[in-house]
Design goal:
The complex is a heterodimer of chains A (410) and B (347).
Chain A lengths: L15 H4 L1 H33 L30 H34 L4 H15 L3 H15 L21 E3 L2 E4 L1 E4 L7 H33 L6 H18 L2 E4 L2 E3 L2 E3 L2 E4 H27 L3 H9 L4 H31 L11 H13 L2 H30 L5
Antiparallel strand pairs in A: 1-2, 2-7, 3-4, 5-6
Helix pairs in contact in A: 3-4, 3-8, 3-10, 3-11, 4-8, 5-8, 6-7, 8-10, 9-10, 10-12, 11-12
Chain B lengths: L1 H20 L11 H8 L2 E6 L7 E2 L5 E2 L1 H14 L5 E6 L4 H6 L5 E2 L7 H5 L3 E3 L4 E3 L1 E6 L13 E6 L3 H12 L4 E6 L2 H9 L5 E5 H9 L7 E3 L7 E3 L2 E3 L3 H20 L6 H5 L5 H7 L5 H5 L5 H9 L2 H8 L29
Helix pairs in contact in B: 3-9, 3-13, 9-13
Classes of the chains: A mainly alpha (410), B alpha/beta (347).
């Protein structure tokens, strides 16, 4: 018979912080953290002390002063008498615009190129390889400049459209391609509900969102019916109606008309101007990043075992449906995480806009405002804060999406 | 005292590290630029990235031009060698950071002297080497004879310069509209303008003349009569180093005074032997101790003037009427000829 006694309860002693392996790692981590905090504090205090010595102190008052310069592309109302802060906002919106356009088109381009690169057709797959290798191995700045130079050098100047026998003519009498940009007809709401045109457009966007959910509900209903009866009801004409009937009704009520660009004075007037700088930046970012996304997509698809394809084929699915129903949903799990960083790259690379004079936030806040006020530190800090915020937001949204497509283990 | 300096120096190093880490660049103005330049043996001079007549490398890679000549004169005065200059090309955006951070010792890049650049950005403009004003250039076949007819025009403009603000003000005051096309450098602006991507190019009138001179067919383009701003262009240095500021200021004044007093690169060796005019003698160092007061050799001004000639010679050689740029002296004539050039006396 043995007697069992509790092991003696050791009381905590200070020396155990060093001698006892259970606590030692905490001690060292705490010391490392302390050293890090102290050195950062030292560097910061040094920076502020030196800035003060040189008579440089942080002040944000300049943001409230009149900017004094004009910006060609403004998504919100702006003139040279408004503040630097307003000019910054104009730049922010321009950055977001080009980043959004480039993200969408790079994704479309990348998915198509990535899928086609795996095609059994020799010519198609080699063409896509050539695209990927050519575009991702040349710096994006070069692509921006190439596209911009081609646009300004090859497209006709507006004055070529003038005269009885002009050198250039508008496409269908509606679109003008010039070396300053592309002029397209602009939709005008002649009789918007709730007074302002902005409210009218908001209403249309809300209508489209409603249509989206309507179409989704319809498809869910069709799925349920298919599960129940084995027969899928024909829904394509109802889907079309859900998308277009509310839109057309809204547009008719609000009196949609088109403002067609026309040559007036030095330039085309009226219509919507898509400036050469926006086109160059947008296209360059899209095709450059699209090449990277194509590789992500290819990697994602190749990560799915061949057995999946064969199993789907043995069930009698056609190649298109195999891709859409079996391969891509699984491949997305592999594709999404690197896709997030490509979106971040697009947003950050959009700061190369100054090369073609596109007035993004780097051009307004980090360019002209910085120059005219000389407040370099404040402007650069704001710029960093902006890009950090946008990047984190994109990451957050994409991570939510990633969680929704990732493998659900039960 | 020595310890204190050591500490300041160390703090600056750390500051620089911290700023670099944060992706910033801020000024670390070192006192004693004159000593730095002498110790280094070369002058770091910020110039334009390429503006014919003012600062541009020639076929042999040698920098030539009106602003370049100021750099060379300062290098000759300080180091006795007009070629001991490291030219740092700067854009409208980078020039102030380059000067404030100490990357360059002086900036001679047709930079307009304004209140905020002097007071807020803390630079010392040592004088004016060219009195300019902002103008407009348009293709002749546009049929425009006045800037007030430019309603709705697309205007190419160098971003990060005072011209941007002048342009906004001019169109606002006249109640006409325009579309700005911001461009980073003069060369790009030239390309855009020639391609017809903008109707008008605006910058300082001297810059327009220089740009037009580089065109294949300069005659197809006209400068409009309106001058919409005052642009006194001059070399500048950092605040807080008055000895260095004095060196650059009086080198420029020596070039201007030399023209006024008739000292030229051809007769300078003769005059350097001594003349009846005491002011000439003081400038050329045969009388008085002006050079010593500046911390330079007695013949500092002589070397500066020998480097490229007096102000008038530099003007004629680089941008005068005999050159493709073809600028008249106008406001930039000596005060005795009805211009604005007026150097304080050397005594």
């Amino acid at each position: 018979m043995t007697t069992m006694t509790d092991p003696p309860q050791e009381s905590f002693r200070v020396s155990m912080l060093i001698n006892d392996t259970r606590y030692r790692s905490y001690t060292f981590q705490f010391i490392a953290l302390l050293a890090l905090v102290v050195s950062i504090a030292y560097l910061m205090s040094n920076m502020f002390a030196n800035l003060r010595d040189q008579g440089l102190f942080l002040s944000w008052a300049f943001l409230g002063e009149p900017a004094g310069y004009d910006i060609n592309q403004r998504l919100i109302e702006y003139n040279s008498q408004m503040t630097h802060w307003r000019a910054t906002l104009v730049g922010v919106l321009n950055t977001l615009l080009v980043a959004f356009l480039a993200c969408v088109s790079a994704t479309v381009l990348g998915v198509i190129a990535g899928v086609l690169r795996l095609s059994n057709n020799w010519l198609v797959s080699k063409l896509m390889s050539a695209y990927v290798e050519a575009f991702r191995n040349v710096p994006v700045l070069i692509w921006i400049i190439i596209i911009f130079t081609i646009m300004t050098a090859v497209m006709p100047a507006p004055r070529a459209f003038r005269g009885d026998e002009p050198d250039a003519a508008m496409l269908f009498g509606l679109f003008a391609f010039t070396n300053r940009g592309v002029y397209v007809p602009a939709p005008i709401l002649g009789n918007p509900l709730f007074g302002s045109a902005a409210m009218g457009w908001l209403l249309i966007v809300l209508g489209l969102v409603g249509s989206f959910f309507g179409a989704k509900a319809l498809s869910a209903w069709a799925n349920a019916k298919q599960e129940l009866t084995g027969e899928r009801p024909t829904t394509w004409y109802i889907t079309l109606a859900i998308w277009f009937v509310p839109l057309l009704v809204l547009l008719t009520i609000m009196g949609l008309s088109w403002n067609v660009p026309a040559l007036k004075g030095f330039n085309f007037a009226g219509g919507l101007t898509i400036r050469g700088s926006l086109i160059a930046l947008w296209f360059a970012l899209a095709i450059y990043t699209g090449a990277f996304i194509a590789e992500n997509v290819r990697a994602g698809i190749q990560a799915i075992s061949k057995g999946q394809t064969e199993a789907a084929a043995s069930l009698g699915l056609r190649p298109g449906r195999i891709m859409n129903l079996v391969i891509l949903p699984q491949a997305l799990r592999v594709i999404i995480p690197p896709l997030i960083s490509q979106y971040l790259n697009i947003t950050k690379n959009s700061s190369l806009a100054i090369a073609v004079g596109y007035m993004d936030i780097t051009g307004t806040l980090g360019g002209i405002t910085l120059n005219q006020t000389g407040r370099a530190i404040e402007c650069v800090l704001l710029l960093m804060l902006f890009y950090l915020t946008i990047s984190l937001l994109i990451s957050a949204v994409m991570n939510v999406y990633n969680n929704s497509v990732k493998l659900k283990e039960r | 005292m020595a310890d204190n300096q050591e500490e300041v120096k160390m703090k600056k190093t750390v500051l620089f590290g911290a700023l670099t880490a944060a992706g910033l660049s801020a000024g670390a103005a070192a006192a004693g630029t004159l000593d730095d330049v002498k110790a280094r043996g070369t002058l770091n001079c910020g110039v334009a990235t390429g503006l014919v007549g003012f600062a541009t490398p020639d076929a042999n890679g040698e920098w030539q031009g009106f602003d370049v000549a100021v750099c060379r004169a300062v290098a000759a005065a300080v180091l006795g060698d007009a070629t001991a200059v490291e030219f740092v090309p700067t854009t409208g955006k980078t020039r102030f950071t380059a000067l404030a951070s100490g990357e360059i010792d002086m900036l001679a890049r047709n930079t307009t002297w304004t209140f905020s650049r002097d007071v807020d950005l803390k630079f010392t403009f040592v004088g004016v080497n060219y009195y300019d004003g902002q103008g407009f250039m348009v293709p002749k076949d546009l049929g425009v004879s006045s800037a007030k007819e430019l309603d709705g025009a697309t205007v190419c403009i160098q971003t990060g310069t005072t011209t941007e603000l002048n342009l906004a003000d001019f169109f606002r005051v006249n109640g006409i509209s325009y579309e700005p096309v911001p461009i980073e450098t003069n060369a790009e602006a030239q390309q855009q303008y020639l391609a017809g991507a903008c109707d008008v190019y605006t910058t300082d009138a001297s810059g327009l003349a220089a740009t037009r001179a580089a065109f294949e067919a300069p005659g197809d383009h006209v400068l409009l009569p309106e001058i919409i701003s005052k642009e006194p262009l001059g070399p500048l240095v950092r605040h807080g180093d008055n000895e260095w500021g004095d060196v650059v200021r009086w080198t420029l004044n020596a070039l201007i005074s030399a023209e006024e007093l008739g000292i030229t690169s051809t007769n300078i060796s003769e005059m350097g032997a001594g003349t009846n005019n005491p002011e000439i003698n003081r400038i050329l160092g045969t009388e008085g101790t002006l050079g010593e007061m500046l911390g330079l050799d007695a013949d500092w001004a002589m070397k500066a003037i020998t480097a490229g000639g007096n102000y008038g010679e530099i003007f004629e050689k680089n941008i005068g009427e005999s050159t493709p740029i073809g600028l008249a002296r106008g406001l930039n004539a000596q005060w005795t000829d009805g211009g604005l050039l007026y150097s304080p006396p050397f005594r």
